[in-house]
């Protein structure tokens, strides 16, 4: 029986955003714990209370002995006995910043055992039996040795698949909690305005609506479908970075943000508002200032908006080293005591690293800059979350469970599915892709790259492929920042993926040469790469960037863990935290390598593995096929091979526009109507716009309609469109809804994304897609800075990207005041 439009709208409502700000009812566990919390506050000394608010580095609290045993440090024991270990950061983290390697680090079971030992010591030797809260990094997987490395968030955004992302976050939560980690510092809800920013890879993209949808999915996945933080597969989600961190001046990390309140609420705060509504109970402040006020001491952000307006009832933690900036950088506090007092008064509850709180919070109280009641408020919030996480009753991890679930085959398969869904086909002139498996048989027969006689004209006996480029076989380069050390064989590269996919047929037919490094001017690898390419019938050229940290001195900020650009440091890292660029071109001599390969006259496919958009107009013009893979994680090589060979039909879509060159920035799609005139040299349209992505099949949109032509301000309509797969392959299409307010009391963006559906269609199959239209799609921040729906006409456009689609108009009548 055919469904009615309203039934479709209800069934698919999980994709829509319907925030209902307001305080939630406390959980039964928390209600039962309140008397105990007040009793603890009565019994704790001021020093013990401050210990609950400081979060030292966990990896400094243990050492691995020469015989392989693990011992707790004396400093940890002293602090735990004094009641000064309320929380630890990154106890299980392993990377160049921590100095924890495969040799000195811990297996999944050993990590759980360590957490148990630390927890037991704190409970036994502390006066009040308060458990430790272990916080871990999980940007794209639990950042511990042996854990699954999923695609980075910019890849996750490119999936346009919140259900799959929610499933992925469930896996991350399971792996982390199995080792005793109870909190994570994700999701990152920053909206990217300037992709030169090195942390672009950590974000979902440029759009506030898409970021809001994925932020909700992350919270629901990490904290569990029931919202019971005490479950053994749930962890506390921390929203970061609050706020506007992705809108910094010049795309430079921690630079100032120049933004009015209307744009702040409509763009940068929107994802946080929805994630708070989804149940997030922890928020991390951003390093930057907004209009001169540091986010770490911005009471308007942390109290008036976050707590009072949105009803947030969790705790707020600083980013690492943020309080130090107040006295050395932003200079809004004269000393550490004043900086600590400013932060706590503004609404901060915990300091990551704990350095300033440890040294100065006590004197801030004794000097009268802060009252003990202020400290009590923060401690109460931290203790509440410890009870909600059920740490008082179940503080210990299960090493056997950690051994079973961390890095499991099920999670590797999930990583492969996510990577495959995130691949964006940017160009495919002449049907160069997919490569045909039949071309690799032993018959020596003639075959086109797509398995037919049509398309690119290949040499007789096609059957050899050259995999060339600095990212063709560089495992760490495809993982992104915030990644732990990996044992040999844990990561499948593009070269490895193609060889595995072709099996015996690979043999001598899958050739390889790196050609050059990501950075640097050396061309010594060119001759070998060209000789390799000469032997092949088709070339897969794997270029891009790297966020792989190294152990070189001078490349890591020892305070924050961010990489540092210095005059004499060297590695291939050109993206990641602290690595911002003034250009979006390929680094080093990669473009020159591509140009030399192109001269051979053979079919070339460029695969980009990178953490920010690459603007290379020569490649966009001359290379027939381009596949954007971002940092696809440990299974990325398999997913890319599947796409190149046609076993996977690319369905990823861009979540940020890619400019023709860096001088066009910004190119985000929701530019205001008053965006100005074009440049003398060029326009300001993206090379590849937001929402864009090709497929091995084709889709046709038709018959856009509304179930009613007009609604009242608080009413709802449904817009629908028919989508048909008109090609010969099964595929997935991302239908996108954009809304334009044709006349408003303030200047509005020309269009804004307000809905999307990812649907699978067989060849010849059609489906009708429905989008509800109501307050969520029509409201904006009006002249008096309240959210309103104004009467007037709205253009609704549904299509495959931000620059294509079918449109229809909806009239909205003002029947009653609609502000909230």
TrEMBL record:
<dbReference type="GO" id="GO:0009251">
    <property type="term" value="P:glucan catabolic process"/>
</dbReference>
<dbReference type="InterPro" id="IPR026891">
    <property type="entry name" value="Fn3-like"/>
</dbReference>
<dbReference type="InterPro" id="IPR017853">
    <property type="entry name" value="GH"/>
</dbReference>
<dbReference type="GO" id="GO:0008422">
    <property type="term" value="F:beta-glucosidase activity"/>
</dbReference>
<dbReference type="InterPro" id="IPR036962">
    <property type="entry name" value="Glyco_hydro_3_N_sf"/>
</dbReference>
<dbReference type="InterPro" id="IPR051915">
    <property type="entry name" value="Cellulose_Degrad_GH3"/>
</dbReference>
<protein>
    <recommendedName>
        <fullName>beta-glucosidase</fullName>
        <ecNumber>3.2.1.21</ecNumber>
    </recommendedName>
</protein>
<feature type="region of interest" description="Disordered">
    <location>
        <begin position="1"/>
        <end position="31"/>
    </location>
</feature>
<dbReference type="InterPro" id="IPR001764">
    <property type="entry name" value="Glyco_hydro_3_N"/>
</dbReference>
<dbReference type="InterPro" id="IPR002772">
    <property type="entry name" value="Glyco_hydro_3_C"/>
</dbReference>
<dbReference type="Pfam" id="PF01915">
    <property type="entry name" value="Glyco_hydro_3_C"/>
</dbReference>
<dbReference type="InterPro" id="IPR013783">
    <property type="entry name" value="Ig-like_fold"/>
</dbReference>
<comment type="similarity">
    <text>Belongs to the glycosyl hydrolase 3 family.</text>
</comment>
<keyword id="KW-0732">Signal</keyword>
<feature type="domain" description="Fibronectin type III-like">
    <location>
        <begin position="733"/>
        <end position="802"/>
    </location>
</feature>
<keyword id="KW-0378">Hydrolase</keyword>
<dbReference type="Pfam" id="PF00933">
    <property type="entry name" value="Glyco_hydro_3"/>
</dbReference>
<dbReference type="Pfam" id="PF14310">
    <property type="entry name" value="Fn3-like"/>
</dbReference>
<keyword id="KW-0326">Glycosidase</keyword>
<dbReference type="InterPro" id="IPR036881">
    <property type="entry name" value="Glyco_hydro_3_C_sf"/>
</dbReference>
<feature type="compositionally biased region" description="Basic and acidic residues">
    <location>
        <begin position="1"/>
        <end position="15"/>
    </location>
</feature>
């Amino acid at each position: 029986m055919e469904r009615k439009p309203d039934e479709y709208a209800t069934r698919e409502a999980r994709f829509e955003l319907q925030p209902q700000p307001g305080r939630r009812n406390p959980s039964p566990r928390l209600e039962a714990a309140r008397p105990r919390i007040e009793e603890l506050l009565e019994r704790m000394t001021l020093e013990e209370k401050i210990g609950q608010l400081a979060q030292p580095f966990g990896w400094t609290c243990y050492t691995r002995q020469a015989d392989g045993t693990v011992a707790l440090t004396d400093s940890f024991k002293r602090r735990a006995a004094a009641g000064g270990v309320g929380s630890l950061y990154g106890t299980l983290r392993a990377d160049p910043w921590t100095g924890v390697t495969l040799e000195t680090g811990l297996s999944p079971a050993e990590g759980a055992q360590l957490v148990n030992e630390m927890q037991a010591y704190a409970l036994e030797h502390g006066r009040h039996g308060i458990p430790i809260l272990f916080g871990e990094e999980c940007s794209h997987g639990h950042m511990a040795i042996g854990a699954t490395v999923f695609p980075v968030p910019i890849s996750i955004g490119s999936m346009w698949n919140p259900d799959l992302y929610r499933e992925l976050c469930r896996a991350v939560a399971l792996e982390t909690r199995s080792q005793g980690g109870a909190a994570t510092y994700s999701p990152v809800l920053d909206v990217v305005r300037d992709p030169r920013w090195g942390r672009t890879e950590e974000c979902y993209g440029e759009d506030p609506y898409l970021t809001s949808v994925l932020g909700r999915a992350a919270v629901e996945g990490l904290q569990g479908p029931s919202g019971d933080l005490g479950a053994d597969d749930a962890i506390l989600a921390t929203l970061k970075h609050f706020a506007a961190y992705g809108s910094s001046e010049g795309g430079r990390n921690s630079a100032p943000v120049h933004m009015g309140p209307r744009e702040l609420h409509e763009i940068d705060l929107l994802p946080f508002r929805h994630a708070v509504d989804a149940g997030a109970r922890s928020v991390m402040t951003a390093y930057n200032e907004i209009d001169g006020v540091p986010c770490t001491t911005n009471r308007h952000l942390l109290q008036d908006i976050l707590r009072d307006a949105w009803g947030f009832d969790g705790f707020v933690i600083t980013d690492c080293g943020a309080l130090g900036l107040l006295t050395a950088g932003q200079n809004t506090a004269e000393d550490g005591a004043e900086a600590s007092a400013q932060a706590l008064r503004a609404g901060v509850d915990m300091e990551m690293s704990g350095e300033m709180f440890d040294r100065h919070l006590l004197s801030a109280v004794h000097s009268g800059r802060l009252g003990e009641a202020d400290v009590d408020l923060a401690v109460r919030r931290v203790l509440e979350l410890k009870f909600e996480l059920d740490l008082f009753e179940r503080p210990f991890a299960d090493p056997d469970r950690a051994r079973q679930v961390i890095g499991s085959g099920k999670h590797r398969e999930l990583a492969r599915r996510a990577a495959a869904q995130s691949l964006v086909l940017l160009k495919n002139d002449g049907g160069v892709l997919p490569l045909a498996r039949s071309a690799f048989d032993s018959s020596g027969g003639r075959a086109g790259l797509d398995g037919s006689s049509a398309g690119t004209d290949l040499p007789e006996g096609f059957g050899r492929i050259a995999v060339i480029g600095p990212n063709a076989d560089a495992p760490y380069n495809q993982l992104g920042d915030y990644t732990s050390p990996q044992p040999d064989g844990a990561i499948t590269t593009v070269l490895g993926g193609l060889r595995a996919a072709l099996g015996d047929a690979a043999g001598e037919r899958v050739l390889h040469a790196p050609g050059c490094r990501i950075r640097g001017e050396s061309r010594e690898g060119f001759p070998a790469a060209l000789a390799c390419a000469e032997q092949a019938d088709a070339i897969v050229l794997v270029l891009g960037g790297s966020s792989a940290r190294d152990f070189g001195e001078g490349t890591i900020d020892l305070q924050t863990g961010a990489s540092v650009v210095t005059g004499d440091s060297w590695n291939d890292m050109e993206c990641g935290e602290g690595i911002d660029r003034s250009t979006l071109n390929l680094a080093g001599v990669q473009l020159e390598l591509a140009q030399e390969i192109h001269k051979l006259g053979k079919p070339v496919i460029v695969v980009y593995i990178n953490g920010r958009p690459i603007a290379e107009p020569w490649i966009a013009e001359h290379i027939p096929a381009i596949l954007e893979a971002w940092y696809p994680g440990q299974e990325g090589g398999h997913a890319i091979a599947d796409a190149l060979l046609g076993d996977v039909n690319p369905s990823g879509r861009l979540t940020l526009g890619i400019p023709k060159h860096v001088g066009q920035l910004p190119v985000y799609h929701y530019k205001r109507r008053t965006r100005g005139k074009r440049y003398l040299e060029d326009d300001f349209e993206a090379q590849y716009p937001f929402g864009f992505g090709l497929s091995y099949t084709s889709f046709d949109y038709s018959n856009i309609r509304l179930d009613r032509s007009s609604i009242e301000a608080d009413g709802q309509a449904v817009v629908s469109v028919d989508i048909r797969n008109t090609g010969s392959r099964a595929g997935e299409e991302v239908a996108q809804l954009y809304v334009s307010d044709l006349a408003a009391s303030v200047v509005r963006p020309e269009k804004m994304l307000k809905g999307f559906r990812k649907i699978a269609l067989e060849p010849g199959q059609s489906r009708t897609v429905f989008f509800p239209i109501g307050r969520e799609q029509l409201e904006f921040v009006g002249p008096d800075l309240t959210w309103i729906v104004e009467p007037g006409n709205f253009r609704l456009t549904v299509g495959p990207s931000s620059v294509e689609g079918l449109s229809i108009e909806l009239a909205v009548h003002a029947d009653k005041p609609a502000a909230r």
